[in-house]
Structures are given as structure tokens and as C-alpha cells.
Amino acid sequence: MEMKDLINALNQVAIASLADAVDKVCGRRGYMDHTIKPRINEQRICGPAATVLEAATDEFLPPQLALDLIDEAPAGSVIVISIAGGEPDVAVWGGLMTAGAVANGHAGAVLDGGVRDLVEIRRDYGFPVYARAVSPGTTLGRYKTVASQVPVCVGGVVVHPGDLMVGDVDGVVCVPRAQAEAVLAMAQDIDAREAEQARLIMVEKSLRMGLAKYGRI
């Protein structure tokens, strides 16, 4: 399936259905920790991951690999930043990085650390950022970027470059690219069955009847 078609289809299914489908198809968890949540607005995100790894340092260095990736990743990417060691309560994303992401047509950001400049991002860009925390603290003297487009761990989930990141107010799910079509098909089936089950429950006024027929809860 072409990436554009895959993204369009993934955008139509429930996050919970995707989480269940990744469990079954991939045999592992795809949903991130509950603390990785929307911090700017409730806009849904969906796009291939472009990844950055940051590591603890006492050097005052800009997050160069993240800055480069924002300019170099294909439009529509979700920038995914992981941190290793050090103090987690700092902002690995802010207003200027948002400006770069918007200028390059990216779909969102998913961060294992914090985000800052919320007022600016909401007012000027409306760009969706899913983050572990909100913090005014800088990474300078605390973290440096050490790699990009490598596997990273964010919110308890390993993300490979090109995996599909899908998120809304229910949370963020990482759909492995190699199994994305199978995950999509199962999620679509789950959505369809749940809709049928909900209709039956409403018509019959019985939750038990819906569970007995469809076995979904």
C-alpha cells in the first residue's frame, strides 16, 4: 500500500483498535505510556517516524541532529525524540523547532521528554506535540543529540524509523511499518464489529447480549 493511502486509512480507525491490533498481529505492545499525551491541542497525528536519540551531558551543545532532521526528514514525518539518562524533566522541543517543523510540513512530534513555549506554539502554529511533560528547562548543559534515524525507546515502546506513529487523546500507538497493512486490516475489522455490537446493545437494551454475540469489551 502506498504511504499516502496507508496514512489516510490509519487516520480513520480508533486508537484503541490499533492498540489491540498491534497486540495481536505483532505480539507486543504498541501503545506508549499514558504520560505521552497531547500538550498543545487535541489534533490527531499520523505519519512515519523520524527519530532522534539524546543522551545526558554537561556540555552546552545545541540539539544539532534534531535540528538537521527537522529540515531533512520527508514532509509528513512525525519527529520522535528519545532521551537516555540524565534529568527527564527538561524540554527537548520548543517554539523554534516547531517553526521548523511547520515550515517543512511535518505531521507532529512525539517526545519522551518535555515541551516548552506552549503559548507560542498554540498561538502561532497549532502544531500537535505529544510529550511526557511540560517544562521550561533547556537541554543545554543537560543533553546532546547523539544519533538520528536509529531505533529509539519512547514511552516504553521501541520505535524504528519509518514506523507509523498514530495518536489522539486516547494515546499514541506505534505501528511497525513491516506489519502496518495487517494491523490496519485487523483494526478496521475491530472497528466494524464494535459498531455492530454497539447497535445491537442499543436496540436490545442489553450489554450482555452484545457481549454474548460479539465477545468484544
Commentary on this structure:
The protein is an alpha/beta fold. The chain has 7 helices and 11 strands. The strands form 2 sheets. Strands 1, 2, 3, 4, 5, 6, 7, 10 and 11 form a 9-stranded mixed β-sheet that branches. Strands 8-9 form a two-stranded antiparallel ribbon. β5, α5 and β6 form a beta-alpha-beta unit. α2 packs across α6 and α6 packs antiparallel against α7. It is elongated and about 65 Å long. The model has no long low-confidence stretch (mean pLDDT 94).
Catalogue the unreliable spans.
none
What percent of the residues sit in helical stretches (DSSP H or I)?
25-40%
What Rg, in angstroms, do the CA atoms define?
Answer: 19 Å
Tell me the span between the first and last alpha carbons: 30 Å
* Silhouette: elongated
CATH third-tier fold name of the domain at 31-175: Glucose Oxidase, domain 1
Amount of beta strand: 25-35%
What CATH first level of the domain at 31-175 would be assigned? Alpha Beta
Mean pLDDT: 94
What is the element string, with H for helices and E for strands?
A: HHEEHEEHEHEEEEEEHH
Number of strands: 11
CATH architecture of the domain at 31-175: 3-Layer(bba) Sandwich
